[in-house]
Protein: BolA-like protein
Amino acid sequence: MSCWRRTFGGLRSNYTMLLAKRAIHTCMARYGPVRDRIVQRLQIEFKPTHLEVDCESHNHAGQDDDERHFYVQIVSNNFEGLKTIQMHRLVNNCLREELAGPVHALRIDAYATSQFSRDPPTVPPKCAHTRTERISK
Structure:
């Protein structure tokens, strides 16, 4: 008996099976080596009080396997007194090797610690190029 049949034995249709496989594959692709490198670089450079790095490649047609589109939410004391564009430039500069190589798109929400605690952000908007159907949450 295959691993998939044991895991998803109750699923009947081939379409449902395909969606289940893609959902699991997509979840695994969100935590790959490029994401890990981004997290490591940001932690070393900014010592953030909050850091969220999500791979959004699964939202883009034909890019389920790639780690090319990322969303970063970072909160750090290093951003105190800086404008949004200055914070974004610091993050982009920190990740310049990734942006020159495997990373195609980077959405950034950067906050100073005082700003984040005083006025926490709402849910970020979806990427403009997001597919309409979503395989996993």
